[in-house]
From TrEMBL:
Domain of life, per lineage: Bacteria
Record's protein name: Thioesterase
Residue ranges of domain Acyl-CoA thioesterase-like C-terminal in the record: 132-259
InterPro entries, per the entry: ACOT8-like_C (IPR049450), Acyl-CoA_hotdog (IPR042171), HotDog_dom_sf (IPR029069), TesB_ACOT8-like_N (IPR049449)
Pfam families according to UniProt: 4HBT_3, 4HBT_3C
Length: 265
């Protein structure tokens, strides 16, 4: 199977609410539990729905906030997407992923009007080395699960808790559908939490993330995602993974993931 999901059905009601049913493939298998999906492809399939949802000229996604309600089980899922705050220049879209009778992920997306702001454009995030001449990075291979095996990784700059890692996948997000650069790249961002943990292996503490916050000052292009990532642990059981997001043309946004630190027995 050369995709992460199979689309089973999509319907739109009179109020414009879209419901889409998908079957996950084993390519979505996560690292913490063999019966769960990794959050990365779950992010990707939600973004695939967002990209198709009631597109409007001169508007684009500026922020997506994902809250993870629990283990995302392998198998059939449903994504319900609707506008919850309409507007002429900004609108708030909600996508809810459910499976096995449970809420799995809730995503809220701000879609915003675009205009020519080049006269004041400026970034503080710096351009980094691109992946062309970097060696393969086997740091992510310590993680189990089929999803990680579908991702190519390269890096020449990393240590425990900090690094720059480039990622690429050639699998389609949905079988039979061409995956856009946006969906392809954004689908890999959640991997940031596992690329450069602050601990040496074997891990003594687990650090699953409860959310994924994405902010884009432009949309990504191409197939490569660069994660310039820092992972930090507080002293009271809570941590944070922060990343500057890059494509081969430069930085395009940032991500944050809040972590619950759990001692491994």
């Amino acid at each position: 199977m050369s995709a992460y999901y199979q689309l089973l059905e999509r319907t739109i009601n009179d109020e414009g609410v879209v419901q889409a049913r998908y079957q996950s493939t084993m390519n979505t298998q996560g690292a913490w539990n063999p019966d769960e999906q990794h959050m990365s492809p779950a992010t990707g399939v939600i973004c695939a729905e967002l990209e198709q949802f009631a597109p409007r000229e001169n508007m684009r996604i500026g922020r997506i906030s994902f809250d993870i309600f629990g283990l995302i089980s392998l198998g059939e899922i449903e994504i319900t997407t609707q506008v919850i705050r309409p507007g002429k220049t900004i609108e708030l879209i909600e996508s809810i992923m459910t499976g096995q009778g449970k809420t799995l992920v809730v995503a809220r997306t701000w879609r915003m009007i675009t205009q020519d702001s080049s006269v004041i454009a400026g970034l503080e995030d710096q351009v980094v080395e691109t992946p062309e001449n970097m060696p393969d990075f086997d740091g992510i291979r310590k993680w189990p699960g089929r999803f990680i095996k579908t991702v190519e990784a390269r890096s020449s700059q990393y240590r425990n808790g900090k690094g720059l890692v480039w990622l690429k996948t050639d699998l389609e997000m949905v079988e039979g559908q061409k995956t856009s650069d946006f969906v392809n790249v954004v689908s890999m961002v959640d991997i940031a939490n596992g690329i450069i943990p602050r601990q040496s292996t074997p891990l003594k503490w687990g650090f699953p993330n409860l959310d994924l916050q994405l902010h884009f000052y432009r949309l990504p292009q191409g197939k490569w995602l660069g994660l310039e990532t820092v992972q930090q642990y507080g002293a009271d059981g809570i941590g944070l993974t922060s990343s500057i997001l890059h494509d081969v043309h430069g930085p395009f946004g940032r991500s944050e993931q809040i972590l619950t630190l759990r001692k491994i027995d």
